[in-house]
Structure to design on (221 residues):
C-alpha cells in the first residue's frame, strides 16, 4: 500500500463546477478542498506588509500573482490541512510556470499527485452556466436562476434577501475569464496530458453525473 495521501488538481473554465466537485471529493474521500482563489483573497485581506502588497497586485494592479507567492500560500494551506488528509486543489496551477511550484508543494507535504482532472466546458456552456449564478446578500446561499431563483431581480426564495450576481459574472466578464483560461491554463492541461496524469471529463452534464464519471475513471486507472 502506498502510504502517501492523495492530491488531486481540478482544472476547468469558469462555470465548470470545480468547487461542487471539490465538495463531492470531500464527501467521498474525506479530502480537504484547497481553494487557491479564496486563499489568495484571504491573504490579500490581512493587514500585514505581505497582505497589503498582495492586495495591491490583485485588487489595484489586477496582475497575476507571482508564482513564488502562489507556492507559499499553497504550502501554508497544505500545512493547515495537516499531513494525513487527501486534498483537492482548485485554482492552481493556473499557468505553465506554476506547475513545478505546485508539484513541489504537493510532494513537500508528503502527498502524491494522483490525477489532474480537467472538467471541459465550451465557452457557450461557460457563459450559460455563469449567467445563471446568483447569490443572496443576506443568507449567503448560492442560487441558480431557473431552479433556486425563479426570476432575475427577484428576492432570495429562502430569506427574501437581495439576490445578485458577482461583478465579473456578466457575459463580458465570463468571456474574458474564458479567454484567460484558454491562453494560460490550457498549456497546463496539455502538460498533464503528456505526463499521463490527466482525466478529461465532459463538463456539460449535471454535477453528480460528472462526479460519477470521475469516480469510474479513477477506478480504471
Ligand atoms: Zn437568502
Amino acid at each position: 500500500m502506498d502510504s502517501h495521501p492523495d492530491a488531486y488538481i481540478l482544472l476547468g473554465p469558469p462555470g465548470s463546477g470545480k468547487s461542487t466537485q471539490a465538495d463531492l471529493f470531500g464527501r467521498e474521500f474525506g479530502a480537504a478542498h484547497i481553494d487557491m482563489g479564496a486563499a489568495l483573497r484571504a491573504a490579500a485581506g490581512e493587514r500585514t506588509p505581505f497582505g497589503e502588497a498582495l492586495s495591491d497586485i490583485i485588487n489595484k494592479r489586477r496582475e497575476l500573482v507571482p508564482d513564488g507567492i502562489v507556492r507559499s500560500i499553497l504550502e501554508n494551506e497544505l500545512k493547515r490541512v495537516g499531513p494525513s488528509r487527501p486534498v483537492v486543489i482548485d485554482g492552481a496551477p493556473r499557468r505553465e510556470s506554476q506547475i513545478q511550484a505546485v508539484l513541489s508543494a504537493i510532494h513537500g507535504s508528503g502527498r502524491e499527485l494522483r490525477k489532474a482532472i480537467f472538467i471541459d466546458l465550451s465557452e457557450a456552456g461557460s457563459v450559460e452556466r455563469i449567467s445563471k449564478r446568483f447569490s443572496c446578500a443576506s443568507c449567503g446561499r448560492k442560487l441558480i436562476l431557473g431552479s433556486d431563483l425563479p426570476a432575475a431581480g427577484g428576492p432570495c426564495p429562502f430569506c427574501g434577501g437581495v439576490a445578485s450576481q458577482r461583478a465579473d459574472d456578466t457575459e463580458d466578464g465570463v468571456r474574458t475569464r474564458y479567454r484567460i483560461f484558454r491562453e494560460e491554463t490550457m498549456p497546463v492541461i496539455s502538460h498533464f496530458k503528456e505526463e499521463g496524469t490527466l482525466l478529461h471529463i465532459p463538463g456539460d452534464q449535471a454535477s453528480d453525473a460528472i462526479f460519477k464519471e470521475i469516480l469510474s475513471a479513477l477506478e480504471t486507472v
